[in-house]
Amino acid sequence: MNRPPARTLPLSPTFSPLYRQIKELILASLESGEWGPGDAIPSESDLAQRFGVSQGTVRKAIDEMAADNLLVRRQGKGTFVATHNDPHSFFRFLRLAANEGVLPTSRSVPLECTRARAGTDVARILGMAVGTPIVILRRVLYFADKPVVFDEVYLPAELFPDFSLDFLNANDESLYSLFESRYGVRMIRADERLRAVSADRVSAAALDVAEGSPLLLVERVAFTYGDKPVEWRRGFYSTANHHYHNELS
Amino acid sequence: MNRPPARTLPLSPTFSPLYRQIKELILASLESGEWGPGDAIPSESDLAQRFGVSQGTVRKAIDEMAADNLLVRRQGKGTFVATHNDPHSFFRFLRLAANEGVLPTSRSVPLECTRARAGTDVARILGMAVGTPIVILRRVLYFADKPVVFDEVYLPAELFPDFSLDFLNANDESLYSLFESRYGVRMIRADERLRAVSADRVSAAALDVAEGSPLLLVERVAFTYGDKPVEWRRGFYSTANHHYHNELS
DNA sequence: CTATTGACATCTTATATAAGACATATCATT
DNA sequence: AATGATATGTCTTATATAAGATGTCAATAG
């Protein structure tokens, strides 16, 4: 039988199996932009040759990255870089569902887009110095012409130049799709914290509910490659006819 | 090289790859109780011989089941049936986190345990006829001696005989751990729907908050093998110092 | 002549099997 | 307490077949 080539196994505290090292290499290529969102990456055997490992090892690395939603396999066609432009993963991060029936098509209405400087909260969450320029976007998501989600989005201004209301109105893609295609910032993971709060004047007005009525507050920190936080979002969900859906396993 | 044995591939609309068929067979053995929670299942090669396939095919089946949290691999020891008794997966379905610091140890205080008959809601959700006997449990979860979660749990009485307050007080395991060890009912998946609601008199009293204050309502349907629903739970979370944590990817 | 069809080659990923090297836990022996 | 045998899962490689997607090209029908 074919003996595998001799390999120096560090066995040290920093040991990681070969397929994971390959995963890191592929990840680096993704991060560097060698293959853009929606592109096909080279075939498994090409990558195997390039990295000097067997096709099965590359396969295992890609398997994990497909499970992480970083890559998408399509039998007979190839393996593709995941993209928020793909209608399939358009609402990958939106866990909203209608209490009955299916979620109707949504409409995003930007309210205002302002420039500011990071306070302590935003600075801590986005890993930046207090006073760093940020962009604040407020918008409402409508479903069947009813306001359901009022979002406040905080972004580092450095990464999103020219971000404006006009720009948003000219594009009807999803926000993350826009981030990806216009600014080259791909969201790959997010952390959410959910609480119940009373509607303040602003969110009550935006969502057309009584001040003080209960709202679901969804605070999200979204990360790009390297676990770098690049968005903080506070979403107020009106949960009279909708709910946040989560599957546990 | 070794040719695989000739195999009748149905290619029909109901085709499923061999490793998935093996998965179903292992699942059937789990469901039948051949290997109980916490037990080690036979080695991959044993299973391969038993099912007449190669070890690698068994491995792929087990890989998926480990990803589904049905099995747990332990290098050098074996593969084990997942259990809610394992401290590791004790709070597998509880997504509660403290706003700052780590979640302190919890204390579960049962309030009442009553018998009733299923109304239309419970009957629909648990897939039973209206009027089927059910058990209703109400309890409060305390963290650092503060009430945080008020739970109403609806169970089919048939599956949970002898369920009573005394019985609960005599056991300080988690509820699912109890279900598993005492009634042989293993929860393997759950669906949750989250909403913000106003505290009614009962939940306000249980959680020591003002009536009308906002609470996070977490409605959960938990399933056992074969996607059979066996628990409906309405949890009211006081989210002043805690939150529901969810990771998206 | 043009458009459609069908056969075919050639990509790709998906599935299946086998085997060697190795890490880790258990247990009996020294 | 240390040693060594054994069993097991893990990691890697190799090979072969199946099947989906797609383009080429010739035959065919209109």
TrEMBL record, chains A, B:
GO molecular function (one): DNA binding
- Keywords for the protein's UniProt record, in alphabetical order: DNA-binding, Transcription, Transcription regulation
Signal peptide boundaries = none
Write down the Gene3D superfamilies for this protein, in alphabetical order.
Chorismate lyase-like, Winged helix-like DNA-binding domain superfamily/Winged helix DNA-binding domain
What InterPro entries does this protein's entry cite? Bact_HTH_transcr_reg (IPR050679), Chorismate_lyase_/UTRA_dom_sf (IPR028978), Tscrpt_reg_HTH_GntR (IPR000524), UTRA (IPR011663), WH-like_DNA-bd_sf (IPR036388), WH_DNA-bd_sf (IPR036390)
Gene Ontology biological process terms, A to Z: negative regulation of DNA-templated transcription
Q: Cross-referenced SUPFAM superfamilies, in alphabetical order?
A: Chorismate lyase-like, Winged helix' DNA-binding domain
Entry keyword annotation includes DNA-binding: yes
- HTH gntR-type domain location is 16-84
The superkingdom of the source organism is: Bacteria
Q: What Pfam families does this protein's entry cite?
A: GntR, UTRA
What is this protein identified as?
UTRA domain-containing protein
Organism encoding this protein: Rhodocyclus tenuis (Rhodospirillum tenue)
